[in-house]
From TrEMBL:
CDD domains xref list: ABC_NrtD_SsuB_transporters
Native source organism of the sequence: Hydrogenophaga borbori
Domain ABC transporter, first and last residues per copy: 9-241
A Pfam short name: ABC_tran
Compartments, record wording: Cell membrane
Gene Ontology CC: one annotated term: plasma membrane
Family per similarity comment: Belongs to the ABC transporter superfamily.
Matches recorded under PROSITE patterns: ABC_TRANSPORTER_1 (PS00211), ABC_TRANSPORTER_2 (PS50893)
Single GO MF descriptor: ATP binding
Coiled coil: none
Identification of the protein by name: ABC transporter ATP-binding protein
Source domain of life: Bacteria
Amino acid sequence: MNDNAYLSISGVDMTFAKGRTVNPVLRHIHLDVRRGEFISLIGHSGCGKSTVLNIVAGLLKASAGGVIVDGREVNEPGPDRALVFQNHSLLPWLTVQQNVALAVDKTFRGSKSAAERRDWVLHNLEMVSMGHALHRLPAEISGGMKQRVGIARALAMQPKVLLLDEPFGALDALTRAHLQDEVMRIQGELRNTVMMITHDVDEAVLLSDRIVMMTNGPAATIGDILDIELERPRDRLALSDDARYNHYRHEVLSFLHEKQRKVEPLSRGAKARASEALSA
Ligand SMILES: Nc1ncnc2c1ncn2[C@@H]1O[C@H](COP(=O)(O)OP(=O)(O)OP(=O)(O)O)[C@@H](O)[C@H]1O
């Protein structure tokens, strides 16, 4: 482990077993993340990105190796690691304000007064531009607004590490761009340590300090890590013409589509047709 690491994943292996079938998903995952760093995890579908995130969150226990956050080993979920999923996980019967208050009350009941907690909820909702919809129910707001509330709820817990599992994956392109900009602005202010899963190469380059590229499973591991040395704040329009941005983009695309090209297994029909073609 590197002494500067705030979050350290060392020697993580993960195998799922069902009956006699054993599925080795991750092998030798080592990653040190500095405090305040924004890391993206990218890789083909099914390679094990969510499994890595769930191990860091403490929702899954690694078969070997472990995770240390700020000097403490991760053994279970905790408020020091807040998760935001692609599909918001707001409680439908609570308003926007109550959804965030639930997490804030749980985290700060012993350390903040009721008035302080209420102010803190409002502050975080205002930070994601949701101060105008405090009393609406999740069913009464858009998908992008729900994600904002999910992000406010996670930030309000003041986690040591923010874990984002495709947080913008279900949004339309415009809302997605807007929310990415907002997350960049907030991260610029708060300097959160973030680990984000994404399938979107532009999103990874725009938001990250480093992009961790995973090999294909089974037994996936870290294939390469790309440092994104673009100064902040970053402007998506200016960067679209920037040669460095396009170089980074190309590096990730080439990793995914050349070095780690996903070969889908042939269906039975396709196999039969291929063998007929070969014997013809
Ligand atoms: N709880 C579980 N039990 C058994 N197998 C699991 C479990 N969770 C994940 N897997 C398997 O582990 C592998 C990796 O899954 P994971 O969801 O981590 O991949 P991913 O890279 O996040 O995929 P995607 O990009 O499609 O979300 C898959 O083969 C999946 O079926």
